[in-house]
Amino acid sequence: MNKDPRSPQDSNDQRTPETRSDALPGASRRDFLATGALGIAGASLLGACKEDGKGTAAGGEHATADVHAKAVVKPGQLDDYYGFWSGGQSGEIRIMGIPSMREIKRIPVFNRDACTGWGATDFSQQLLKGKMSGDTHHVHLSYNGGTYDGRYVYVNDKAQARLARVNCETMEVDKIAEIPNSQGTHGIFPQRHKTGYVFCNAEFRTPPDNNAETAADPRGYGAMHTAVDGETMEVKWQVLIEGNLDLCATDYKGLYSFATCYNLEGGVTLEEMMKNDRDCLYVFNIAAIEKAVAAGKGKTFGKSKVPVIDARGADSEYVVRVPVAKSPHGVNVDPTGKYAVCSGKLSPTVTVVEIDKLADVFAKKIKPAQAIVAEPEVGLGPLHTAFDGRGNAYTSIFIDSVVTKWNIAKAIAEYKGEAVKQSQAVLQKLDVHYQIGHINASMSETKDADGKWLIALCKFSKDRFLNVGPLHPENDQLIDISGEKMVLVHDGPTWPEPHDAVIVRKDLIHPKKVQSRTDERFKMYEAWAKEDGVDLQRDSKVVRKQGLVRVYITSLAPKFAMSEFTVKTGDRVQVIISNIDKVEDLSHGFCMSHHDVNFLVNAQDTQSATFTAGAPGVYWYYCPWFCHALHLEMRGRMIVTA
Ligand code: K7E
Ligand code: CUA
Q1: Does any ligand 2 atom lie closer than 6 A to the CB of residue 557?
Q2: Are the C-beta atoms of 293 and 307 separated by less than 8 Å?
Q3: DSSP notation for 317-386
């Protein structure tokens, strides 16, 4: 059997007809859930990966040669979209080309990266403060007027409660904010009407004043919804909430931010967290919170100076709680800005909240539950939802390993009670391989959703790739959603674990081709150069200071302008390398033998790193980037004296 996913002969489905789920939903899956067969999530959620034996049916997703051809980007051709993938446990971001699924670049963020020297250079160490790992889940770009403005990419670090920003001109991290009073910074979302706040949700409840006295009793725990200024990356304010906060979203008008809560119970064990039949969507009223902060109503906790509005307990002018399907995970706002779709992880349904009704909820004219306008049944374990801009939604269904396409208007009509025996809202279920987490469609999180491509980020890959040992790659699957039926067109293995991804039209992103020396970090080099009377792009010079030897070197293929310098053993040595080549793509680097120093310096760039000179002797430094026919000769000696 031909398993090449690009092959028109590939069935993309190796299951027996009984286990296929792209038929319209029957009653059986609902019954399975209703009878409590789901049990404790741990067992079923992870145990439900379907058996995929040697296959039967062919042509499962109506794949045709034409459809596959659309996803092929020939040598020399460019992709139509940038894909920004989070890197999960790797701590990085990746840039993919869509539809080819080619990985074009990795952006180190919270990780130490041996290729570029991120984590070892002076600038990156200033931002990372010695932390060399992170857990990135959610990547989102800055907005203006409901669509991407192409300036920044934001990404969370769940492991150490941080928010990083990548400057799209260079595709390098330029700022990292630490989120106070928080653990498990998970869902993030920027405002969409302009580059305003980026909201960050704390997934883990902790005592706001975390200390020895408050640590043990979970009754005092809460979680913070944090507003970070997307321009300055300063933390502006926080709202303290009783439940946990999972995924995050914003509306299109700048009125609200949203957070799903899967633990309204306030439990600390799995069983306790799963008790309630409904949890909630927190809706934050931004103007009311800003007003309270301006009026000095915020408290502070611990060392943090950030004002915190305590909104625990009952609904208030600051926050209301809309009851949604059990243990919700994703919340996604559709491209019209009208609906927030919340996926009930432990319910077969998604809850659709009409955003315009929330003003009446805050005004106490209607109850929070009255903002709910639909609750279609989409399958077992709904997680996240994407949109095509044509009124359809695509929900990732973890336990069933399918993508469910459903129509929002039809789901709303059915919820109004217009008698329907079998739901007409669900249009198709497509098998994915396997255990899908996030899902996203081209421009889905903007008003310009164009319904061309859908990406399914699957957690398991099993038999889809060559066996590479117990740790399998993830399987990112590309689905064509331009037609009436979804068609799976490509399998893409990825290094674990991209949780989320956004697909951005290429005309919206304009990186520089050569460094223009206008980034934040040049201020740092220029300050040193001024202090030492050095012209970074002209001078190569050793400057001996109290406790530090600064070595300025320019590089121009195939030479470092300084081929020898002398320091004493134990000296702190800071090398500041300026690549003065002007040619696009002409990167040099600097590697000091036996000193764990190795970093990249792009054309027209400056980079620096600091290390301690080792035992007396000679140490060669060299350019690790292949830059010239005489690249191997591009080196020099550090002489270390006793
Ligand atoms: Cu669903 Cu962190 Cu967005 Cu993982 S989260 S999938
Ligand atoms: Cu410069 Cu190799």
Answers
A1: yes
A2: yes
A3: SSEEEEEEESSEEEEEE-TTS-EEEEEETTSSBEEEEEGGGHHHHHTTSS-GGGGEEE--B--SSEEEEE
Strands 308-310 and 235-241, by their bridges, are parallel
Atom from ligand 1 closest to the CA of residue 383:
1
- Global pTM exceeds 0.70: yes
Beta bridge partners of 148: 143
The answer to whether 509 and 150 have CB atoms below 8 angstroms apart is yes
267 Cα: distance to centroid of ligand 1 (angstroms): 21
Q: Output the CATH code of domain 521-641.
A: 2.60.40.420
CA 297 to chain centre: 33
Q: Distance between CA 355 and CA 282 in Å, rounded? A: 12
Sequence spans of domains, the chain: 8-50, 521-641
Atom 4, ligand 1: residue with shortest CA distance: 499
DSSP 66: H
pLDDT in tens, 181-198: 999 999 999 999 999 999
CB 430 within 8 A of CB 455: no
Reported as half-sphere exposure (CB side, CA atoms, 13 A), residue 96 has a value of 24
Mean pLDDT of the region 29-33 = 38
